[in-house]
Amino acid sequence: MKKNTLLILLISISLLNLLGLNQASSKALLSDSISLVSPETCPNSGCAAGQRLNFLIEFSAAPHQNGPNLQLCITAPLDGQSGAGTNLWADYSSGSISSTGLVSGESYTIGELDNVCTDNHSSEQLVTSVYAALPSTATDQLDLALRINRTTDINGYVNIYIYELDYTGSNWSLSATLTKSINVASASQPAYVAETVGQCGSYAPCFVNSADNLPNGLGTGLKDAIDAYATPADINILSTYNIKSHDVLVDKPHTIQGQSNSTLSYNGSICTSPMLTITAGATLSHITLNDGTCTSISRNLVVVDSPDPVFLEYNTLKDGYIGVLLKNNAGNLTIQFNQNVSYAIKRESGSSLGEINATANNIFDNKYGYQVDCQNKGIVDHNFWGEGVSLASAISNCNKTNGKELGAPIMTADTGVDAIRTTVTSTKTSAFNGTISYNHNGSGDFDIYIINHGNGNQDNIPFLGSGSEPMTACSNFWDVFTADGSSPSELVLYMKYDLNSSCESRIESSDYCGQTSSSKFPLWWYDPAYDVTDKWDKTGETPKGTGAGGAAGQTTSCDTTNKEISVTIDSSGRPDLNNDLQFTPFIVGFPLPTGIQLTSFTSEFRVSRVDVKWITSSENNITGFHILRGETANGTYTRITEPIPAIGNPFIGGIYNYTDYDIVFARNYFYKLEVIDANGQTIEIHGPVSVLTSTATPTATLTRTPTQTRTSTLIKTNTPYVYKSPTKTYRSPTPTRTHSSSYQSATPSRTQINATQSLSATANNQTPSSLISSTKYPVPQSTTSMTSSLSDMKYDDELNSDANPVPLPESADKAALLADPIHDNKTVLGKVGRYDKTSWVALIAGSIAGLLLLSLIGWLFIKPQIS
After folding, report:
1. CA–CA separation, 200 and 45 (whole Å)
2. Kind and range of the H or E element at 161?
3. Parallel/antiparallel/unpaired status of strands 248-250 and 276-278
4. Mean pLDDT across the stretch 744-750?
5. Hey, how many other C-beta atoms are within 10 angstroms of the C-beta on 437?
6. pLDDT tens across 258-311, in order?
7. How far is Cα 687 from Cα 674, in angstroms, rounded to an integer?
8. Is residue 185 over pLDDT 70?
9. SS3 call for 25
10. From CA 768, how far away is CA 780, in angstroms rounded?
């Protein structure tokens, strides 16, 4: 019986060990090694000189004495340079090593005992050393972080020497040597920064993020790159690059710039620090910068606290709390050619001399009140502040000159905006792919800004709606102005007009460049400040504005060979260098004529009414329409409408419908469209279009059908409903603003829809059901309540028909889901976590082992009785 009991005990222990195998296997036995863990590997060209490296040291030890009995000596090559170099290979000035064993939990002390590391490894660089008092047998791990010295230009290694105290308690014996070799890419310019090794590609030297997340950005490849260069360097950020929760300190006068649409962002939840803090005369350029996943708390994007000048140019700053915060320091901050849609710029109060100079930026759609606050230390001329935004509401405590704000947004580039500051010399120089050129014939070079507003859209036209007028563009709209402090005597501007063949043929015709009078050459300028021009005036003609004071125009020339028109700007006429060139936009093109461009005008008889429809593609300086009706083509016509407000503009027309119920059957009707200008005068009449009404027939009685069609009493109206197409949108990267207007009438309503939808919808006097779910605007109501009710029913049927089924999860039982009245809110789970899988395996194994154990115990008890 004792044997049986002992056997049961042994079997039970064995089974319990089997059951614990899954737990034991999760702790792999340590092997003596040093491995590179972050980054896991170096880029193809090698780890950049200055790169921070994170290692994991794994080792076993069997000391023979109590007290301090284990030492680790960490070394690297003594020399990090080829030839006669004297700098060390490794840089441990910001390095670290674990003070507690990652496995044992034992304490490790920085330093060495009995000069073991110093005496035995004097031919190598002693990076650091630690010692500990371990139990008689121990396995452990330590983290190690260091940088490759920024001056290193040769490959190297990191060695770990493990010493144990022998039986005598007086001698240290070497028990293991661990080595990790590192390939190095020496410092060169430009340097590159990527979040991962894979993003580096063939770029070298390339710095990547390591494992640490420490103050000043230590642990990011960007901070490694900044620290790697003692003198100004170009540092290019690759792809989308995420920093960590601390701000990255830019404390050297480097140029940090994006490479191919790069984004500097953040992925985390610690949002109390800025993204970048600049404390030296650095430049930040061609980067999209945002604070990523920060929402309820937003990070400041750039903080400048520098005694030297700092430049921010060609950047797109999005989200964040304050886009650029200037501390009270001595260095000036120049912000130019940026797209900013955060709280733009703020200077802290104080008496230091540092000022803000913001020029040629798009600064709009910010989250707070004032977009820029200079604290009376800054100037903010020549920026675009948003459509309809006054300068007074956009800035606080900044110097500015009224009229020097831009009248249209600057075209956006990959990052920032499409504008330049350039030096004018006696040599003709082109910019913006040759579309504009410049030079001077006087003495002395000087700087100008050239700003590209683009063309083809009403939003491209400077000061449209506040003084200028629509133009048919044959070039881009440009703003050109001299840099502050410049005193030029002459500037010659050349602008291409070859946007299309229509522009070329018209400009080169006898009406314009085909004759000799330069006053007719169609290069136009506009003065928003002093009314020197009357809207747009030609540069070669006498200005027509009330502020011109009898001034002459400037010398203007046509060059049909090069497809360009030029103007020489000096102080003898207008526009001049000293006054107008601080305010003036330019364009080659033609003013749009007053009136409409009519796409179609139709009438159609429908049962008991006549539908009159017209579509425009352009409406310039008009206020509205009247419908005229007559009973003969050449007879008397009478207005049958109140004024129908115009909804289009010179670039976007409208779609209009008028329903005439005041008709007699079996009679011809003729309709004309009367166009009214801004002064209430008739400027155009289109038509007539005719229709023959049918013979009156008995009215069918509406009956209820099995489909439960809803009906209502017919109410006659004689008012139009209108649609504007397409929707006008204001172009900006983010956010996009949509403008809408409504025709305030008791019966008609108007909805902005796209061109394809409006053409097909209004042909049947209804709106497609797809608009119900795709637009926030109200559905246009028909001119009768019957049609409205029927349409409503139609929309309900379409939205609940089989043509629009609710998608079901792939793994769901479709019948069961459909039987559930809220099936579309349910989620079918189809994945099991790895911990869940392990729990089922352990449960099954345990159950089988338990059954085997019970069977064995039962057999051992029953066997003696059978015997």
Report:
1. 9
2. strand 156-165
3. parallel
4. 32
5. 18
6. 998 899 999 999 999 999 999 999 999 999 999 999 988 899 999 999 999 999
7. 9
8. yes
9. helix
10. 10
Rounded to whole angstroms, how far apart are CA atoms 435 and 480?
Answer: 14
Beta sheet of 322-326, edge-to-edge order: 248-250, 276-278, 302-304, 322-326, 343-347, 372-373, 395-396
DSSP 30: P
Do 590 and 471 meet the contact criterion of CB atoms below 8 Å apart?
yes
pTM tops 0.85? no
Q: CA angle, 738 as apex, 735 and 743 as ends, to 5°? A: 165
Per-residue pLDDT band at 788 (split at 50, 70, 90): very low
What does the pLDDT look like over 817-855, one tens digit per residue?
Answer: 333 333 333 332 233 333 333 444 455 666 676 677 666
β 362-363/395-396 pair status: unpaired
* Amino acid found at 847: S
- Report the length, in residues, of the chain: 867
The predicted-structure confidence for 689-744, as pLDDT tens digits, reads as follows 999 988 655 444 333 333 333 333 333 334 343 443 333 322 333 333 333 333 33
Three-state DSSP string of 294-353:
CCCCCCCCEEECCCCCEEEECCEECCCCEEEEECCCCCCEEEECCEECCEEEEECCCCCC
Cβ-contact 792, 769 below 8 angstroms: no
The DSSP code for 605 is E
- Residue 135 backbone dihedrals phi, psi, to 5 degrees: -60, 175
Long-range contacts of 403-406 (CB under 8 A, 24+ apart): 403/528, 403/529, 403/530, 403/583, 404/481, 404/529, 404/582, 404/583, 405/381, 406/360, 406/382, 406/451, 406/453, 406/462, 406/479
Distance CA 126, CA 128 (A): 6
